[in-house]
Amino acid sequence: MKAFDQPYVVETPFIYDYSLEQLQDWMKEQDEPTFRAGQLFDWLYVKRVSSFEEMSNLPKPLRDKLTSSFQFITLSEITRFESKDGTVKFLFGLHDNHAIETVIMRHNYGNSVCVTTQVGCRIGCTFCASTLGGLKRNLTSGEIVAQVVKAQQMLDPEDQRVSSIVIMGSGEPFENYEATMAFLRLMIHPKGLNIGQRHITVSTSGIVPSMYKFTDENTQINLAISIHAPNDELRSKLMPVNRRYRFQEVIDACRNYIAKTGRRITFEYALIGGTNDRPEHAQELAEVLQGMLCHVNLIPVNHVPERKYVRTPREDIFEFQRILEKNGINATIRREQGHDIAAACGQLRAKHMELT
Ligand code: SF4
Description:
Blueprint: H1 20-29, H2 35-45, H3 60-69, E1 76-82, E2 88-93, E3 99-107, E4 110-114, E5 118-120, E6 135-138, H4 141-155, E7 162-167, H5 177-188, E8 200-204, H6 208-217, E9 222-226, H7 232-238, H8 247-261, E10 265-271, H9 279-289, E11 294-300, H10 314-326, E12 330-333, H11 347-355
Parallel strand pairs: 4-7, 7-8, 8-9, 9-10, 10-11, 11-12
Antiparallel strand pairs: 1-2, 2-3, 3-4, 5-6
The structure holds iron/sulfur cluster (SF4).
């Protein structure tokens, strides 16, 4: 598998693709004072307006120049579904007619946004709807940023803020590494949305070289690994990426991350009825993870009509958790949110693709 970290190039760049430093450089090139970049940044991330025209403290000629140099609207809302539990799922249209999903989850500790990093996905996990049409393209960092800005704009009238971000929507963020890192830098910027690093989680299917690279970034951002099996053979059946980056290589990269950062790692484990959810799988997983600073998040798999997987019975889910905990591995069961609105990643987009 070749690395897929090609930037997506657009003719007129998106304003949200730019860091504060890049905006300062742009202002210099235009013979504008650099403090204008700070004002622009403030309009984008603090006041969160929807056009350059509204940036009233920027001179009109500069606003015109911005309008002709950048695209402002990067996402258009195609539809939104609101769950009884408060979860909101957006289907956004991109300028090239692709569609992506973004989810806002309401917790008693704050609002979390789940963002998408690619249109589709080529990783091919057998339990996932996002991968059904393959990978269409990478998102730019600005297209990822715009999802959070849109979510925040939805929350603004309630005087609430996005307090955490999970990069767990469609796509493999570590195959769009540079855009994902640029997005993260914008999210944690103190003059921007200023989201605490510890409130952000990046989830990967185990792209080993990027895991090492991410470790060396030395951030406080959380790392989650989609492990989904306790051994090489079963993982290869569920996740074809495992044939490229083998189970043990992924575990070694996790150990390196923990040793270098001192941070706990999360393992995501989708429980699939009769496939990877038996007591012996729990026991084997516990042995693999022995001694690691980690946490296992058990996810009862959502029913994806295109796949034949069945759901793990409730009692078996608890039994799996009990076996892990008995062996000293911290494990939780993910609370289901938005079950009534097709919450599994890619389901909404898949439906949209069928209709268009
Ligand atoms: S689970 Fe994630 S990595 Fe796997 S196919 Fe779906 S979107 Fe891609």
